[in-house]
Design a protein that fits this description.
The chain has helices at 24-28, 46-59, 68-81, 125-129, 152-163, 208-219, 231-235, 267-281; strands spanning 4-7, 10-13, 31-39, 42-43, 87-94, 111-118, 131-137, 168-172, 178-181, 185-189, 194-197, 223-226, 239-244, 248-255, 258-259. The chain is an alpha+beta fold and 287 residues long. The protein has two domains: 4-119, Aminotransferase class 4, branched-chain amino acid transferase, N-terminal domain (D-amino Acid Aminotransferase, Chain A, domain 1, 2-Layer Sandwich); 125-281, D-amino Acid Aminotransferase, Chain A, domain 2 (Alpha-Beta Barrel), CATH 3.20.10. The longest helix is centred in the last third of the chain and has 15 residues, at 267-281. The structure holds N-(5'-phosphopyridoxyl)-D-alanine (PDD). N-(5'-phosphopyridoxyl)-D-alanine binds at residues 35, 180, 183-185, 205, 207-210, 243-246.
């Protein structure tokens, strides 16, 4: 069965799926996206992902091209047609097609694209063994709370990480504090057993996994604080990890040249990872 994409009302073979050359997503990165994962045919945290999508759209004055109910139906239909029980779904909405002019057009119809991919998340080596990250200056704009498709600084930083033999980059603001990763939120565990992650008021993405993990951590009676931390604090931390829909809770075992602990995932991180996996696999089937 050929893999399908969804483009503006049609299920199309993935290899032929296309948008217009004057689509503003292509011309100006004028659009937003969401990524949600599906485990055993259940979409994890679908409601907060779609809430964030609606918020990103409204911050940019782009309208949702279908009702939310239809959007959910199409997501589930595309996953089913592509036979994806475990994998991810990517949704992109742009302002639509219009003659090239920087100012927002008054009457463009938003473009809606969805693609899916099969992934066996729970057996991914990096999620289980941990990753090496680098730190690099955060070159992004001041509205990182909007999940915009404008990801060039993120792409530059991730490339830098790969070239340095790492897996991910944590981005650093002008005061030397970590903002977040190129596609994940950043956390450390201090030597007095406190979880630290930056507050979402500080111009970072309001990670859905981050929010869920905070609830789980509270249930586990772990103490956490939302405040910026420096690169030095991260390197001397007891443990570090990242969160995102696609990387779950991923242990960080090395930051630049500094190996954390004994170079293996730490105890707190492993407990949180187990708890988050459990949360994901116990979701009721949504398809
Ligand atoms: N990225 N910060 C950034 C910059 C991100 O791009 C992401 C997600 C996160 C974590 O958010 P969440 O927990 O809601 O996935 C934080 C997705 C996975 C991506 O771009 O593919």
């Amino acid at each position: 069965m050929a893999r399908l994409a969804y483009v503006d009302g049609r299920y199309t073979p993935h290899q032929d799926a296309a948008v217009h050359v004057e689509d503003r997503g292509f011309q100006f990165s004028d659009g937003v996206y969401e990524v949600a994962v599906c485990i055993d045919s259940a979409l994890i945290d679908l409601t907060p992902h779609l809430d964030r999508l609606e918020r990103s759209l409204s911050e940019l004055e782009i309208s949702l091209p279908t009702s939310r109910r239809v959007l959910e139906m199409v997501m589930k239909e595309l996953l089913a047609r592509n036979g994806v029980r475990d994998g991810l779904i990517y949704i992109q909405i742009t302002r639509g097609t219009a003659p090239r002019d920087h100012a927002f057009p008054s009457n463009a119809k938003p473009t809606l694209v969805m693609t899916t991919k099969r992934v066996d998340f729970l057996n991914q080596k990096k999620i289980l063994d941990g990753v090496k990250i680098i730190t690099t200056p955060d070159l992004r704009w001041d509205r990182c709370d909007i999940k915009s498709v404008s990801l060039l600084p993120n792409c530059i930083a991730k490339t830098e990480a790969r070239r340095a033999g790492g897996d991910e980059a944590w981005l650093v603001d002008k005061s030397g504090c970590v903002t977040e990763g190129t596609s994940c939120n950043a956390w450390i565990v201090t030597h007095d057993d406190k979880l630290l992650t930056r507050a979402t008021t500080d111009n970072i993405l309001r990670g859905v996994t981050r929010a869920t993990l905070m609830e789980l951590a509270a249930e586990m009676s772990l103490t956490f604080e939302e405040r910026p931390f420096t690169v030095e604090e991260a390197k001397s931390a007891r443990e570090a990890f990242s969160t995102s829909a696609t990387s779950f809770v991923t242990p960080v075992v090395q930051i630049d040249d500094t190996v954390l602990g004994n170079g293996a995932p730490g105890l707190f991180t492993s407990r949180l990872q187990d708890r988050y996996f459990e949360y994901c696999v116990n979701k009721e089937s949504a398809l």
